[in-house]
Amino acid sequence: MTHYILNQQQPLLPQLSGRRIAFTTPTNYSPRLLRLLHHYHAIPIPIPTVHISITPQNLSDLKSYTTNSELLSTFSALAFTSRSGISAFSLALPVTPPLPEPVHTFSICALGNDVQLLKETNLAMRIFKRKSAEVAFPVSIPASPEGMVEALGAGRGRKILCPVPEVVGLKEPAVVGEFVERLERKGWNPVRVPAYETRWTGENCLDTLLRGKEGEDMVDAMVFTSTAEVEGFLKGLEKAGWRWESVREKWKDLVVATHGPVTRVGAEKLGIEVDVVGVQFDSFYGVLEALALWWSC
Description:
Elements: E1 4-6, E2 20-23, H1 30-39, E3 43-46, E4 50-53, H2 56-66, H3 69-72, E5 75-79, H4 83-92, E6 106-109, H5 114-120, H6 123-127, E7 135-136, H7 145-152, E8 159-168, H8 174-185, E9 189-200, H9 207-210, E10 221-224, H10 227-239, H11 244-250, E11 255-258, H12 261-269, E12 276-278, H13 285-296
Parallel strand pairs: 1-12, 2-3, 2-10, 5-6, 5-8, 6-7, 8-9, 10-11, 11-12
Antiparallel strand pairs: 4-9
Helix pairs in contact: 2-4
């Protein structure tokens, strides 16, 4: 099946109007997607398959770095692969910035629009006591873990702190380990710290989808925004006595879309063939744009 990789500058097409679109996005990210769906008159079906939270243990683990100036000063970079990681690190920072201005360039890297959150939280000013031109914000193009590694450049043995998810009830997505391995191949010395918890939402997570009322159970598209969500979805199907093939049989015209190519690869490794993925994956606009063009063909 063809994967449509799109990058259109035109507004979303009217084909989204009236479409019933299910998505597995966690509740702390889904409002952004919900707003877009409502704006373009689609009918959203939220079925979050994972829950993301920052636990007291996560904060304790982060504070072992953020409140230890001697230890934190040994790092040359911070790499955030999600907004949750940024939020957790920001919460763990003490009131007084733990470090003086950097002696050498210190890089703080995030994906796509998450860079805006770095600015909104004034992260650099909360880490360093004095504002400095030595703090860099490499832009990852594309907005993917691979793009981030390339944007960071050669590590030359320097240490980089990576606030990553602690996955509970599911297997850790391969993308996390692969990100760390890429950093190592680029010469960095990555240090992982569990910054937040990604937990399966439970065996009833798909009730809204699988037990819909007659006439209200039509689904036009399924949107996955992370590999963990895909695994949570498949686990929910298994607990409900369904298989992915059962979903395809019930909704024969279902279009499967992913938010970015990393999720597409993860989904297909888990046995779910993806129909569309938008190239503009630094926001949810891209995946909806890809769906709109699919339906316009």
